[in-house]
């Protein structure tokens, strides 16, 4: 079967990328934006970097700023109402994965109203129309939601997150501007950066991986491996590097899928409201160990991309261990918890593993996963 690649129509990268928004809006003839963002980004003056540009250019917009981390279905429903009330004809999504994902779901329902219940969008939904046009401006360097064909919504009633995969949802334009990410506190920078590393590693070893996405994932691992530590310390050049690294990982994984790390992370976040990047990062070395036998020579190239020397003289067991150790040491250095002791209760394990197995990312895992395996993976971290 042929490999499909879906990417943004146009993307801007580097300092000043957000300035492209005004000309893009004017040249496309869009008339009014709904801005999807969250309350903290308003409070910390991140959203205003864009609204200042729109005000100066007298481009009209309405703000929808109620979006919560791990966004619930209710956020999508109120976003749809806000879009209609504003009589908007495009969306500017400003934020991390939560704001951009909510914007995607809103945009899809606006043009495909038969999916207005939101839950029916889970998995690969047969939408017929492109979503309302989105300009995505990421403020975290992690999810790459600005370039992916996925969005993740939380069903609070059922205590689960569900992944929606739909080429119709991809933002038309993304502006990946490191200045939008400079205000991230160290812990957010660390967790979102580890999310990006998880995308790159899971995307590299996932069942559907192929040469073009391998190229993207290895480059992303290299950039994240060399820059995440300094980015967490607030170094501006490293933050710019991370903005690019996470985007490149998104170009890859969005088109080939992920694996059981993300399935378990989705479950953990839905059940305990753990930040997505923290959840991904806690599982990563353990899941790498679990998948090692099913990854051929790939851990050698992961180790190399992470900066490990002399991999050519290592045995298979040695370079696999070296790759996992390099990931572990990065995760520790940036302050990620190394186990689930303070998060997971043993009595929840049955539900957590059922839910992980049912997640849309699980089939992409290089090793076929059973519920018993997932219970063991959780237990090894307790
Ligand atoms: N669409 C995809 O392909 C994809 C991929 C991975 C994860 N996700 C989803 O994305 C969500 C996580 O997104 P996230 O990790 O980017 O975080 P987020 O959007 O949930 O934001 C977390 C917190 O960080 C704050 N924040 C964001 N940027 C900031 C900045 N520049 N300065 C200060 N504070 C800032 C926000 O206000 C918020 O309080 C999860 O729901 C996850 O499942 C989606
Ligand atoms: Fe992720």
UniProtKB/TrEMBL annotation:
Record domain Fe-containing alcohol dehydrogenase-like C-terminal: where: 190-381
This protein's record includes keyword Ubl conjugation: no
Gene Ontology MF terms in the entry: alcohol dehydrogenase (NAD+) activity; lactaldehyde reductase activity; metal ion binding
Top EC class for this record: oxidoreductase
UniProt KW Mitochondrion keyword: no
EC number: 1.1.1.77
InterPro entries xrefs: ADH_Fe/GldA (IPR001670), ADH_Fe_C (IPR056798), ADH_Fe_CS (IPR018211), Alcohol_dehydrogenase_Fe (IPR039697), Lactal_redase (IPR013460)
Transmembrane segments: none
CDD domains: LPO
Domain Alcohol dehydrogenase iron-type/glycerol dehydrogenase GldA as annotated: residue spans: 11-178
Record's keyword terms, sorted: Oxidoreductase
One Pfam family named in its UniProt record: ADH_Fe_C
Family per record: Belongs to the iron-containing alcohol dehydrogenase family.
Protein name: Lactaldehyde reductase
Lineage of producing organism: Bacteria, Pseudomonadati, Spirochaetota, Spirochaetia, Spirochaetales
């Amino acid at each position: 079967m042929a490999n499909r690649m879906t990417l943004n129509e146009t993307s801007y990268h580097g300092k000043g990328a957000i300035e492209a928004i005004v000309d893009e809006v004017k040249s496309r003839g869009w008339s009014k934006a709904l801005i999807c963002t969250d309350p903290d980004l308003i409070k910390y003056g991140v959203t205003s970097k864009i609204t200042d540009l729109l005000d100066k250019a007298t481009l009209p917009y309405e703000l929808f700023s109620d979006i919560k981390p791990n966004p619930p279905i209710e956020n999508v429903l109120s976003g749809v109402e806000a879009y209609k009330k504003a009589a908007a004809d495009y969306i500017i999504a400003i934020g991390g994965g939560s704001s951009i994902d909510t914007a995607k779901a809103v945009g899809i329902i606006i043009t495909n109203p038969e999916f207005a219940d939101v839950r029916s969008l889970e998995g690969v939904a047969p939408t017929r129309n492109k979503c309302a046009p989105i300009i995505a401006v990421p403020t975290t360097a992690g999810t790459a939601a600005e370039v992916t064909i996925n969005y993740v919504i939380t069903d609070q009633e059922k205590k689960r997150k569900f992944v929606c995969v739909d080429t119709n949802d991809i933002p038309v334009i993304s502006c990946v501007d490191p200045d939008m990410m400079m205000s991230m506190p160290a812990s957010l920078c660390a967790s979102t950066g580890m999310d990006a590393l998880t995308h790159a590693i899971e995307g590299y070893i996932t069942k559907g991986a192929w040469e073009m996405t391998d190229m993207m994932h290895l480059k992303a691992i290299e950039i994240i491996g060399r820059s995440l530590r300094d980015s967490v310390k607030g170094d501006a050049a490293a933050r710019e590097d991370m903005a690019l690294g996470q985007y490149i990982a998104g170009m890859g994984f969005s088109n080939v899928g992920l694996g059981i790390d993300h399935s378990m992370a989705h479950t953990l976040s839905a059940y305990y409201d753990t930040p997505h990047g923290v959840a991904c990062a806690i599982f990563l070395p353990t899941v790498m160990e679990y998948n090692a036998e099913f990854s051929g020579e790939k851990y050698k190239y992961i180790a190399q991309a992470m900066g490990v020397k002399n991999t050519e003289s290592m045995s298979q067991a040695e370079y696999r261990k070296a790759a996992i150790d390099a990931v572990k040491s990065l995760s520790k250095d940036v302050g990620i918890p190394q186990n689930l002791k303070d998060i997971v209760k043993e009595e929840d394990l049955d539900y957590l593993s059922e839910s992980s197995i049912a997640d849309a990312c699980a089939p992409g895992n290089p090793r076929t996963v059973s519920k018993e395996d997932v219970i063991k993976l959780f237990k090894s971290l307790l």
